[in-house]
Amino acid sequence: MMATLTFYLAGAIAVIATALAITRSNPVHAVIYLVNSFFALALLFYLLGAPLLAAWELIIYAGAIMVLFLFIIMMLKLSPSSAEKGLVATRGQWVPVVLLAVALASCTMLLTGLDPATAQEAPRWHASPRDFGYALFKEYALAVEIASFQLLFAAVGAFYVGRPDKMRDEEDVV
Amino acid sequence: MIVPMEHVLVLSIILFTLGLICVLARRNLIMILIGVEVMLNAVGLTFVGASALWQNLDGQMMVIFLMAMTSAEVSISLAMVVYLQRRKNSVDVRSFNEMRG
């Protein structure tokens, strides 16, 4: 019961945060809302029996990819940011705070519900990291290798596309 | 399953549609990439939901490869954004409407 309630709560947070993210004019705000949405999605993954994927959603998506977005946005020095004056958050800035707080609160609620002393429902199916690792590296070993190649090519390609102008000019001369 | 599969699908459809709207409506390259991220995550939610429905690990495996694919896609596309910004000093897609080789 608690898990079902948490599912709908996290789903609502994911939809609201995503809707806010795609309507922001400032990309930095959009990325922060999207991190909110990924927290809620990680909770959904956990509730649907994928604890390892939930952790990776946070580590890879919210932690690495979104920070890469932020890094690029800061690096590009986009249009002048609309920096509000004063230290107190404006009304708009409270929305991400509230969303993230509700996500964390529902996560805590879930942990309370999972307390073995109070849990009465039958244990739900979930994939333990051990099962997951066996399946990944036994049945899908070839796919893992291909994914590693893909990441290597992506790194080389990103370096090639983003190389400094000086190197580009030298190549043109040669 | 803690909730009916239909509800997972409806949530996933809503998220996917939001991402699609973002890709189609926004004119900022970075916002378009964010829309793509939203869509990929919606698909991942469907995979995890199906995995829970049939109690099978294959759906979760697909999400792992989806994450690897997204990492590669984001690194390449952000490098492209940096390159385009250097060329035109803008990340507005309307500045890049002259692909004539």
Automatic annotation (TrEMBL), chain A:
It comes from the Bacteria. This is NADH-quinone oxidoreductase subunit J. It is found in: Cell membrane. One of its GO terms (molecular function) is quinone binding. The keyword RNA-binding does not apply. The keyword Chaperone does not apply. It comes from Malonomonas rubra DSM 5091. Belongs to the complex I subunit 6 family.
UniProtKB/TrEMBL annotation, chain B:
It is found in: Cell membrane; Membrane. It catalyses: a quinone + NADH + 5 H(+)(in) = a quinol + NAD(+) + 4 H(+)(out). Its main location: membrane. NDH-1 is composed of 14 different subunits. Subunits NuoA, H, J, K, L, M, N constitute the membrane sector of the complex. Its EC number is 7.1.1.-. The chain crosses the membrane at residues 6-25, 32-54, 60-84. GO terms for molecular function: NADH dehydrogenase (quinone) (non-electrogenic) activity; quinone binding. Pfam families: Oxidored_q2 (PF00420). It comes from Malonomonas rubra DSM 5091. This is NADH-quinone oxidoreductase subunit K. One of its GO terms (cellular component) is NADH dehydrogenase complex. NDH-1 shuttles electrons from NADH, via FMN and iron-sulfur (Fe-S) centers, to quinones in the respiratory chain. The immediate electron acceptor for the enzyme in this species is believed to be ubiquinone. Couples the redox reaction to proton translocation (for every two electrons transferred, four hydrogen ions are translocated across the cytoplasmic membrane), and thus conserves the redox energy in a proton gradient. It is a multi-pass membrane protein. NCBIfam families: PRK05715.1-2. The lineage of its organism: Bacteria, Pseudomonadati, Thermodesulfobacteriota, Desulfuromonadia, Desulfuromonadales. GO terms for biological process: ATP synthesis coupled electron transport. It comes from the Bacteria.
